[in-house]
């Protein structure tokens, strides 16, 4: 079993994403001071494979199949419905009309005010017991 050749020079053929952009994103984390070339390549390749998997899954389980196309709503539906991809739900929200969104915000604000009052009462009870 031969080990994979270390990416050098020809790495662009092995990965589609621009390594310079991946490096910039990785360096944006305050915990990262330097990035090993192998780590950079593997992160880029893993990201590429993940995006391919997300796209294939969304296409297979979405309505875009009917039109032979992958749509944004296929991706957002996958993020919402599939447990594996739920961490993307904030990044791929369902498209809704602005008027509907504003109504939702107003409703959340009203419910939030009710919820805050309930939480304060619970906190008071907790202090009495302590």
From TrEMBL:
Indicate the segments forming the Transcription factor CBF/NF-Y/archaeal histone domain, all copies: 16-77
What parts of the sequence cross the membrane? none
Any one GO CC term of the record: CHRAC
**Protein's cellular compartments:** Nucleus
Q: Which domain of life is it from?
A: Eukaryota
Q: Which UniProt keywords apply?
A: Acetylation, Coiled coil, DNA-binding, Nucleotidyltransferase, Nucleus, Phosphoprotein, Transferase
Known InterPro entries for this protein? CBFA_NFYB_domain, Histone-fold, Transcr_DNA_Rep_Reg
Specify whether Glycoprotein is a keyword of the entry: no
Q: Any one Gene Ontology biological process term?
A: DNA-templated DNA replication
Q: Where is this region: Disordered?
A: 108-130
Q: Which SUPFAM superfamilies match?
A: Histone-fold (SSF47113)
Which molecular-function annotations from GO does this UniProt entry contain? Answer: DNA binding; nucleotidyltransferase activity; protein heterodimerization activity
Main subcellular location: nucleus
Subunit structure, interactors included:
Heterodimer with POLE3; binds to DNA. Component of the CHRAC ISWI chromatin remodeling complex at least composed of SMARCA5/SNF2H, BAZ1A/ACF1, CHRAC1 and POLE3; the complex preferentially binds DNA through the CHRAC1-POLE3 heterodimer and possesses ATP-dependent nucleosome-remodeling activity. Within the complex, the heterodimer with POLE3 interacts with SMARCA5/SNF2H; the interaction is direct and enhances nucleosome sliding activity by the SMARCA5/SNF2H and BAZ1A/ACF1 interaction. Within the complex, the heterodimer with POLE3 interacts with BAZ1A/ACF1; the interactions are direct.
Q: What does this protein do?
A: Forms a complex with DNA polymerase epsilon subunit POLE3 and binds naked DNA, which is then incorporated into chromatin, aided by the nucleosome remodeling activity of ISWI/SNF2H and ACF1. Does not enhance nucleosome sliding activity of the ACF-5 ISWI chromatin remodeling complex.
Its protein name is Chromatin accessibility complex protein 1
Tell me what organism the protein belongs to. Todus mexicanus
Gene encoding this chain?
Answer: Chrac1
């Amino acid at each position: 079993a031969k080990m994979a050749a270390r990416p050098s020079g020809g790495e662009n053929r092995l990965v589609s994403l621009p390594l310079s952009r991946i490096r910039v994103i990785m360096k944006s984390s305050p915990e990262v001071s330097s990035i090993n070339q192998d780590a950079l390549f593997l992160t880029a390749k893993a990201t590429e494979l993940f995006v391919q998997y997300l796209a294939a899954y969304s296409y297979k389980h979405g309505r875009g199949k009917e039109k032979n196309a992958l749509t944004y709503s296929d991706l957002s539906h996958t993020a919402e419905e599939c447990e594996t991809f739920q961490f993307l739900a904030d990044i791929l929200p369902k498209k809704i009309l602005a008027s509907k969104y504003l109504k939702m915000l107003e409703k959340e604000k009203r419910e939030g005010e009710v919820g805050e009052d309930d939480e304060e009462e619970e906190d008071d009870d907790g202090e009495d017991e302590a």
